[in-house]
Amino acid sequence: MKTALLLSFTLIVSCLVFAASSTSESSANIRKIESNLDYIKRNDRVFTQKSAVRVTANPEHELLLSLAREVLALRKETNELRQETVALRTKLDPLKKEREKSE
């Protein structure tokens, strides 16, 4: 049972990391992934404390969770930069058109 729990945890967090690093730009998706990671971390600790199997806190779990959080942080930063780029292009396009008209 302990091995099954460790494998399922690793698989779930790996999928979340992959989802966070995908090309999806939705902030809602990022929030969903963050809440799933919080839920996993919370329940992993609760299960570790109450389990008859005595699953100890695994450093690999913490590493995977920190990796997932880092990927999410980078994803957020990328989304913010994209939004800034779109805003700058929106401001720049009319200026380019005015310049072309004046030439």
Low-confidence region ranges? none
Q: Please state the CA-atom Rg, rounded to the nearest Å.
A: 21 Å
Tally of contiguous helical segments: 3
Most strands sheet: none
Report the count of strand segments: 0
How much strand content do the residues show? under 5%
Shape descriptor reads: rod-shaped
Structural classification: mainly alpha
- Helix % is over 70%
Number of domains: 1
> Helix and strand string, N-terminal first?
HHH
Termini distance?
74 Å
Average pLDDT metric: 72
Oligomer: single chain
Describe the structure.
It is a single chain. Helix content is 85%, strand content 0%. It starts with a helix and ends with a helix. The protein is built from three helices and no strands. It is rod-shaped, with a radius of gyration of 21 Å. It has helices at 2-21, 27-50, 59-102. The chain has one domain (2-102).
Write the layout of secondary structure elements.
Blueprint: H1 2-21, H2 27-50, H3 59-102
Summarize the structure.
With 103 residues, this protein is an all-alpha fold. It contains 3 helices and no strands.
Please describe the structure with a list of short key phrases separated by commas or semicolons.
mainly alpha, rod-shaped, about 100 residues
